[in-house]
């Protein structure tokens, strides 16, 4: 929901922006006045998001980047700053789902893939975002964890481990930089209408709906609203928080 261009003059950096929660949040930032750097693995995947941002009168910078590659992340942050002059908000949303398997059957390559992208990738992004925010005297970071970050998931140990760890990373960074005017928080989405949910359920969305106490899936725009609240002055006293937005799934 738009709130009188509350991000006019601000620059937002959104990873995993090609679809789902990332796309909805990037468009929401633009709707409320921010210039937005949108990041995903390929430029082609980001064109739809860029078009949606321009449709609301916003300005988008497309950056192809694999967040598991430190040099690419450093270059992406540098490109955003070079283009827009600063970096006020970072939404570290990029991540992947695991191949379902009980713990003893998880292949090491699969474990490493999930942790490299979801956890290590988030850390790499934060490392370079924080460096810029320290230079300019402040900023806001929001990381995407999951309801799986506060409960177990049968067949999903690698994903749950990565999302639990993001909460610990978020809380520690919040303490590290509280006195430097940098706030760091996490959102914990539940079952949301996204391409990832389609893949995870094999297209049987009813399985995910049945897990939701409210009887429906969440919408990406509902997660975006929470990210924008955390990033705005309305959330100025909130840091180190991990807020569930999951229709009661994690209760």
UniProtKB/TrEMBL annotation:
Transmembrane segments: none annotated. The keyword Oxidoreductase applies. Its EC number is 1.1.1.47. Pfam families: adh_short_C2. The keyword Cytoplasm does not apply. Keywords: NAD, Oxidoreductase. CDD domains: SDR_c. GO terms for molecular function: glucose 1-dehydrogenase [NAD(P)+] activity. Residues 10-195 form the Ketoreductase domain. Belongs to the short-chain dehydrogenases/reductases (SDR) family. This is Glucose 1-dehydrogenase. The lineage of its organism: Bacteria, Pseudomonadati, Pseudomonadota, Alphaproteobacteria, Sphingomonadales.
